[in-house]
Specification:
two-stranded antiparallel ribbon; about 100 residues; 4 strands; alpha+beta; single chain
């Protein structure tokens, strides 16, 4: 009595190529969605910031500087009690210095 077993089914070369294309397309799509989300999340969100005269009872001086890459960074300078120390509060991506007022006081 002879027992024969069926050979395992093989994927045709055409089907394999189709699966590879689909996998490559899925990877490119995943990358594009991630890139678009990161781009949207880091877009600048410029807006008017109300001019303040004082912060914590001290005079505010508006300051601005230009970074090496040409981006203008703006902020406020408030002299400390002895004028020798400095604290930098950064609001982060798409943030505003107004969000840091409670920490600054």
């Amino acid at each position: 009595m002879s027992v024969t077993t069926a050979a395992p089914a093989r994927t045709s070369p055409t089907r394999r190529r189709r699966l590879l294309r689909l996998a490559a397309l899925a990877c490119v799509g995943w990358w594009l969605v991630g890139f678009a989300a990161a781009w949207q999340a880091t877009l600048p969100h410029p807006g008017e910031i109300a001019a303040l005269q004082q912060l914590g009872g001290r005079a505010i001086e508006p300051v601005a500087t230009t970074a090496r890459d040409g981006v203008t960074v703006r902020g406020w300078l408030v002299d400390g009690s002895d004028g020798t120390r400095c604290v930098v509060l950064a609001a982060g991506i798409r943030g505003s210095r107004l969000a840091m007022l409670t920490r600054a006081e």
